[in-house]
Amino acid sequence: MSTKVAELSALFNQDNEAAWVANLWDKFNTQRSGKIEEWKELRNYIFATDTSTTTNQSLPWKNSTTIPKLCQIRDNLHSNYLSALFPNDNWVKWEAHSADSAVKTKAQAIEQYIANKARLSGLKTVVSKLLYDYIDYGNSFITTSYVNKFKELANGEKVVSYMGPVSHRISPLDIVFNPLAESFEDTFKIVRSIKTIGELKKLAMDDPDNAFWAEVVERRQTLKHTLGGYSKEDFDKAVGFQADGFGNMYEYFMGDYVEILEFFGDYHTKDGVLELNKVLTVVDRSYTAREADIPSWQGTSPIRHVGWRIRQDNLWAMGPLDNLVGMQYRLDHLENLKADAMDLLVHPPLKIIGEVEEFVYGPSEEIHIDENGDVQELGKNLSGVIATNNEIEMTEMRMEMYAGAPREAMGIRTAGEKTAFEVNQLATAGGRIFQEKITSFEVNLLEPNLNDQLEVAVRNLDQTDVIRVIDDDLGVQEFLSITKEDITANGKIRPIGARHFAKQAQDLQNLMGVFNSPIGQMITPHTSGKEMTKVVNDIVGLTGYNIFSPNVSIFEAQETQSLMQQATSNLQGEQEASNIATEEGI
């Protein structure tokens, strides 16, 4: 072994933790390679503009049209999921677990703080991306961190631009775990990411828990200067590991990108010690930059997961589109088969009998035929094309149904005459799969993440934070000062958008059914108009317009009457003045 190779081997010798974390990533990432290929095939169908990029390219059809049915179902599910999660601004509720935590001022402070941070940190945008993961991959992953972002003014003064919790999407392609574990909370997690040196510097500045990145940046820059005298061949001989997505380690280390593997969970050391609830950060697959307890007070990793279609004994869930790829293949097959058949009908092949001179097949062209010669079209039957149209339509309807898409929301109505109440009942029943899936997303992913945000905020908030809120009663803008004590309580945050969305639809149906029946006439004298107004205001989501307020029509009628009386009085005064002037003139 040459001296340079020996020097490189010593320089990049993997420490014990880095070695087993990297091997664990490779092992579980390789085991799911078949699933990754399925995801890639689905992605190709979703974004295809023709069949040349899909598995349909092997079919011998002249036409290559693709029907974007999977893409349409995806867009339909995403828009309805997002609307259900955030139906209005009051989608966050505090559920106290003690009397002190149930005080109205504390509950309002927590709800307004979380809602404000969710809005300023762009949580809705993150959730939108997670919903696409939920649909495309069948699995969504989210984590939380705390950041302090400052803006430096021209005079050198630093002003806080954002201070608080931030949620981050983790791509299903960038995380591995033991899929045979009893639950996602019970297994280790390894998250892979690629960051630039500049991003690591910014992380060290913004996040109190990430100050160690400054040392990583300094180490990489030192390595880069040291490695200038080595060749690519020296690296190939000395460095026995690879970073995914990079051609070789020489290009990797001489570039500006850093591969990071972060391990969360329990592990057993070579000395026989069981380490619990640890986080290990491995850089370059050779250096352990951080080995510490998971900072969360809950003692578990801040990574949350939800699956669309749960598999028994496998934590990798299925997505709504996974088993529709074959039907999409069938759709494109039928569409191009039909198109080729139509081409044959319009431009059929010709059967030439006997001696026929070369000719151009087209309108007003002459064909010169010898004795006993002939040119005949090989016509085809249209019945097959019509049957293909019907089969395509039926396949599309079945795909919508299998994906659990809310068909009534797309304006699709089942046959038969129905009353308005019957239509609402059918819409609710037809959307049960949709409602169950979005409620699962809200309960298993969004709710734990919001509580992680509250926990990380309580743990890191060391100064007064000022947030903007809207007073529900007066509708005016206020600025509320929040301290650590204001948001420290025993309880949990509950997002109620999807659950409230379903309850609203059910409540409206029940009210219409009751008050359109004889029972409604019986209970009308005992029904509060004010409370009913609040219910309608909440259900139809018109809170921001200030349409409803107690007895407002009486006050407005009184105001109108007063103005009419004033106008009448003014008119009478003008007439009297005119009469006096006329008499004086006489």
Report on this structure.
The structure is a single chain. This protein has 586 residues and is of the alpha+beta class. Among the domains are: 3-31 and 171-318, no CATH class; 48-63 and 322-402, no CATH class. 47% of the residues lie in helices and 19% in strands. The protein is built from 18 helices and 16 strands. A five-stranded antiparallel sheet has the order 4-5-6-7-8. It has a three-stranded antiparallel sheet with strand order 3-2-9, with helices on both faces. It has a two-stranded antiparallel sheet with strand order 1-16. Helix 4 crosses helix 6 and helix 15 (497-515) crosses helix 17. It is flat. The model has no long low-confidence stretch (mean pLDDT 80).
Question: What oligomeric state best describes the polypeptide chains here?
Answer: single chain
Radius of gyration: 34 Å
Largest sheet: 5 strands, antiparallel
Q: How are strands sequenced across the largest beta sheet?
A: 4-5-6-7-8
Output the structural class.
Answer: alpha+beta
Continuous helix count: 18
Mean pLDDT: 80
Give the helix proportion (percent range).
Answer: 40-55%
Gap between N and C termini:
131 Å
Number of strands: 16
Blueprint (SSEs and pairs):
Blueprint (H helix, E strand, L loop, with lengths): L2 H9 L4 H16 L1 H14 L22 H17 L6 E5 L7 H17 L2 H14 L2 E14 L5 E13 L4 E3 L11 E8 H10 L6 H14 L5 H7 L10 H6 L2 E12 L5 E10 L3 E7 L10 E4 L1 E3 L2 E5 L6 H22 L3 E4 L20 E4 L5 H20 L17 H11 L1 H29 L4 E6 L6 E6 L8 E5 L1 H19 L2 H6 L5 H12 L11 H34 L1
Antiparallel strand pairs: 1-16, 2-3, 2-9, 4-5, 5-6, 6-7, 7-8, 10-11, 12-13, 14-15
